[in-house]
Every structure is written in structure tokens, then in C-alpha cells.
Amino acid sequence: MNFIKKLLSPKYLWGYFIAAIAFVSLFFLFVRLGLFGKLPTFDEIENPNSNLASEIYSADSVLIGKYYVNNRSNIAFSDLSPWSEKALLAIEDERFYNHSGVDLESTFRAIVFMGSRGGGSTITQQLAKMMFHRRPSNLVTRVIQKLKEYILALMIERRYTKEEIIAMYYNMFDFTYNAVGIESASRIYFNKKPRELNIDEAAIFAGMAQNPILHNPKKFPENAKKRRNTVLYKMRELGYITNTQYEQAINKPIKLDYHPESANDGIAPYFRTELSKFLKQWAKDNPKSDGTTYNIYTDGLKIYTTIDSRLQQHAEAAVIEHLKKHQNIIDAQFKSGWNPWNKEIGKKILLRKCKETEHWYALKQAGWSDKKIEEFFKNDKREMELYTYNGMKKVTASSYDSVKHYQSMLQAGFMVTEPFTGFVRAWVGGPNYQYFKFDHCTNQRQVGSTFKPIVYTLAVDNGWSPCMVITPGNGCIGSWCPRGGSGGPQTLKMALTKSNNKAAAYITLKFGVKALIDMARRMGITSDLPPYGPICLGAADISLIEMMQVYSTFPNAGINSKPIYIVRIEDKDGNVIQNFTTEMKEVLNDNIAYKMVEMMKGPVGPGGTGASLKGKFGLSGIEIAGKTGTTNNNTDAWFIGYTPQLVAGAWVGCDEPIIHILYTGNGMGSAAAMPIFGKFMNKAYNDKSIGLDKQAKFFKPSNEQLLKSVCDDDEVEIQLDDSGNWLDAPEENYDTEYNLGD
Fold first, then answer.
1. Closest by alpha carbon to 516, among 723, 720, 726?
2. Alpha helices, DSSP H, located in 238-307
3. Residue 352 CB coordination number (10 Å)
């Protein structure tokens, strides 16, 4: 008994107290020295190791997408709504401005009441936890982590102002649904900037701090509302809002304007994918000053593009509006009994497409044989939703049926550029990125008669007049003879207006296939070009983006502008890393370009293959030139045209040529592709925010004589003598398969 009294004497109690102080101090010292795991340095605190999303901006300053591991962007305290600060303080740390990172009162309360009356972590401690720690695996590691949080909180408070700490907290908090940081969260949940959040919206986000899943307004709206009202109650209690503001806010329903963000969502997803390919190569070729490589997913780069978000939206809408209507033609063909999938080649294609799916790959990884997987794909019927251009459709089908469905849908590629700068203003690689990843702006397809302007450019550049009368005859080049078009006398301009195959072949005969290919190369074609006569009818696989470069030459007075879609790249601090400029070269003099513009008005004028364009799509009064194109069996439909301000090109077809429109009246370029151009131009020129000029005129040539009609009576008209000085193509055996029209 005396021994116990001795141990409890003041002398020993003071010893215990001092020993406890010493133990805790040593423990904190050991934590600070990193004996229980490395702590960050001050430099690491000032530059936390957290992934910053790289942001993609349009030419009209709209954020159109991000590349990220975590969808996070930093904002300053001044960019926050004042309600965001007050809501967070009210519910998480009301004495925030009165402590130095650790609130002893809250800590002791949490210990005494075991957290039942609130936690003890300050906002700064929570920030420390978010910045540097993973979830502890047991009680011991949790205690050690908590001590680290105390130390880190004190270090953070020494380095940052209170306002900076609040901003950092909101920047790093994961609000779920791919929204890391309040900048992403505000846009995803409410389609707003952080500074635009009102009282109840700010309270929702502050309420999520306790549990972002349980109090998520998208997943658990009732939970979120209750938590929001708790935050609002605390805000009123602390005098941050009036009683009137409180009553108004708690009675509001949660009203989300939900805009999910992923690679599949938002505008220009095909463009963003293509841009990422460019940026990855750029990063390899342009290392940082320290020799390391930029990471587009974590370095917080800002990429400024040439895309105009308004034109992009109009382009995407035009594509879907047209495909929604034109898909009915394909569907009607199937309903009438046409089914190429039942042919052997069709079955082989479908099986190949099935093998390309993730589902097939997963079963293969599980050890299934190809035969077993194929049987499963064909026989396992279940309820599913299939995407259509009219919305999702619930069906009972097999995986095989699903693949067949998507392979039977029309696809499209559509691009818009500015001829003078080469700036890509809209890029639509397909109808829906979630279901169709293939980009038809870069994909090579047979171009048909959209190639013919290159043929006529070759002739005009070599002195032929648009008014020259030619007599193509059978148009044979060696043993190959084209079908389609008159062989009788006609002007060059009329031959292009009517897309006369024999005339295009005749021109090619006179100058030679090599000269034609050389001209195509000068104008921007890099794809392989077969050195045979049918090349003049577009019997070559060329990408839409290449053809856009070709057509930019005409309205740009003979200056060829290579399409460009990026203006500059900045680092996370706003420092310019690199500026980009358009590659331009003079391909034709302005007189030749002017003649081609005048000639190419023909196909969209009276009697032309695209004569319905202006009247049908409300484009009367706008100067337009262009060319349709259709390939064998209506497999590929094209239209590329331009106004004085924009060049736009459309391709329409199916991924597999076995699926195509049977009736040429519906499958040719003027019916299957031109409507996208027409719908887009109608939207673009009627959108006053864009400021396009309906009265704009094509450029004037340096030769004033050409300002009068290109085909005035006093123009020289001659009948070419076949024995003249023109270079004839060599005699070769040409593939007679290429008989292209339109």
C-alpha cells in the first residue's frame, strides 16, 4: 500500500508527466526524421506529387476535353465561390482561421467521445492526408499516419496562406464520377464554373467531404440533400447566411446539370484521340529542360487547338441528323430480304469482327477454344441495349447479333477547315465514339470523282481553258476504257459539271498518269497512288484530311495550306512550351486557282451532280463550289466543297464494303454525303455568334481579264489534235474494274 502511495506521490507524477512529454516529443521527432516512413520535404509540399489533367481548349476558349489519370485541374482561391469557403468551414473546421494546422480542442473531443461528436482533423490535416498518404492497413499504421498528418499540417501552415490551403483542399478532393477537384466537379455535376456555385450547391460539395460516395447527389440524392441541409444549418448557426437564405436553400430540390467526362463524352472525341497521338510523339521529340519526357496525362499541360466548339457542335449534329435518316435505306434493304451477311464472305467478316471484341478476348483468356466461343456468341441470347441513330433499343439478341447490328450501320467522316490558315475548325471521325472508335477522317477510302478536280487542275495549269472544247471519244487509256459520260464535244467546264468519266480519262491521256500523280502530290496527297489510268476517276484510297488539303488550294488563291489543329502548348504554370504555325506553299498561281473555283461552281450549279445543294439546304446567295464522288457499288459516297470562308468534306459508307446502298439514286455522293455539308453550312451561316458572312465572295485574280465570265465568247476555244505536243500516257494493261461515276 505504501508502495502504491509512493508511486502516486507528486514527485513521481511529475516524472511520469515529463517522461510522457519526452516520449511524445521523441516519437514526433522520429516521425519527422522519417524513421516511420519518409516525410516530404518543403519543396515536395510546395509541389505536391499529384496528377494534373492536361486541358484541351478550343479556338473560342471552351474547354473541350482533358487527358488525365485523375480528372483534376487547379484553381486559385479567387476562383472559388465565397459560399464554398463558408460551407467548408462550417461543416469541417469552424476554427480554421484560429489554429496553426492542429485544433487541440477538436482533437481532445474526438478522443474523449471516440468521434461520436465529430472528428478531430482540421482542413489542413485532411489536406495532408489527401496529398501524401494511402489508407492505413491497421491500427498501428493509422496512429503513425495520424502523427504524420499533425506534422505535415504544421509544415503546410508554415508554407501556405489559409486561403491557399482551402483552394488546395478543393483542388485535390475526389468528388467521384471522375471529378477530382472542384473545377471538374462543378462542371460535371452542375455545368458551372466553381465561382458560379450558389449557396446550396456549395453546401452539397462541402457535405461530400465526410463521405463523397454516401453523400453523392448523383448516386444518393436523398442522402446528399440531408447532408446539404446539415451544412446549411451550421452556416446559419455561424452567421454565414441569414435565416431567409437558409429557408430558401433547404427547400430547394437538388437540381443537377450532369455532364459526365470521359474519352467517350463531350464534343470532338475523335479529334481528341487524334490529338493525343500527336502529343505523345511531340512529347518524345521535345523533352523537358531536365531531360525527362512530358506526360500528357499528369503534367497539367494546356493545349490550345484550332477547333471552334460551335462549328464542331454543328458538324456533329449535321452528321447524326443525316445518318438518322439515311440509315433507314440500309434497314429497308435488309427488311426486303437483302442479306449479304449470309454469304460466305459475310460470315467470314462477322467472325473476324467478333474476334476483335473485348468479350471474345476475355473468353479466350479464360481458356475457351475459338469454336466454343463462336457457338456461345451465336447461341447465347440475352436482353441487351443496342445503339441506334434514334436512341438506345432494348432487344433480346446474341453477341453475334450485336456485332452484325453495328457492322450494318452507316458511318461518316466530316471535317471543316479554314482555307487561308489551314486551321481545322471541326473534326467528326464518326457518329458515336463510344460505339465506333474508328476515325473516318484519317481512314483511307476510295475517293471516286472528288479526285477529278486534280485532273482538271493539271489541264488548266498547263494552259487549257475552262471553255476549251474537247471531244473525249471513248476516253481509252491503253486497253482500259472508262464507262460513263459523253464522248462528244464539250467544254472543260461542262465536263467537270457533269463529272464526265471519259473527259477525265481524256485529260489524263494527254498529260500522262505520272504528271497527274505529280500534281496530286503537289496538292497534298501522300497516300499510295496506283500508276494506272483509273486513278483519274479516283481509283485510289485517300484520307479525308488529305483531300481537305487539296481543296483548300482553290479558294486560297493557289496557296496550299496543310491542315493544322494545334496552336500552342503551355505548361501547368502558363509558360508557352511551343507555338505551331501552318505549313503553306504556292501550288498554283491565283489565275489558275480562280479558273478552278469558277469551274467547280458547276457541279453545285444548274445541271451539276450536286445541283440541289443550295435550294434544298437554304444556301441561296452563298458562293459555293465543290464536287461529289461515288465509288463502285455505292460503297463510298463523298462531297467536298467550299465557300469563301470554309472548306468542308464528308464521306459516308459502311466499315465493310459488303454493306452498301443498292440504288445509286440513294447511294451517290449528292444523296448520301452532300446533305451533311448542306446541313452543316446552313447551321454555321445562321449562327450569328460565329459571324460568317453570307455575302462573302471568292478572291479576285491578279489578271483582271478573268473577272468576267470564264467562258465568254471571246475566250479561245480549240479542238485538241491527238497528234499534238501533249505527253501521252504509256501503253499498259489497266485494270478494267475501275469504272467510277458521279
1. 726
2. 243-250, 269-285
3. 11
Q: What is the pLDDT of residues 723-739, one digit of tens each?
A: 332 223 222 223 333 44
3-state SS string over 545-606?
HHHHHHHHCCCCCCEEECCECEEEEECCCCCEEEECCCCEEECCCHHHHHHHHHHHCHHHCC
* C-alpha atoms less than 13 angstroms from C-alpha of 542 in its C-beta half-sphere: 31
For cell 507555338, the residue is: 579
Give the C-alpha separation, 186 to 192, whole Å. Answer: 5
Q: Is the dihedral of CA 696, 701, 702, 703 positive or negative?
A: negative
pLDDT of 234 above 50 = yes
Nearest to residue 654, comparing CAs of 329, 268, 316, 360?
A: 329
Nearest to 519 by CA among 532, 509, 508: 508
> Exposed, middle or buried by CB within 10 Å (0-12, 13-18, 19+), for 150?
buried
Q: Which residues, 6+ apart, have CB-to-CB distance to 23 below 8 Å?
A: none
CA dist 526 and 545 (Å) reads 11
The three cell numbers locating residue 568:
500552342
Asked if 57 and 63 count as a contact pair (C-beta separation under 8 A), the reply is yes
Q: What is the pLDDT of residues 63-87, one digit of tens each?
A: 999 998 878 888 999 999 999 999 9
Q: Is the dihedral of CA 657, 660, 664, 667 positive or negative?
A: negative
Is the pTM value of this prediction over 0.90?
A: no
Residue whose cell numbers read 519526357: 293
How far lies 693's CA from each of 417, 419, 551, 604, 644, in Å?
16, 15, 20, 20, 9
pLDDT band at 52 (very low <50, low <70, confident <90, very high): confident
Whether 625 has a pLDDT exceeding 70, the answer reads: yes
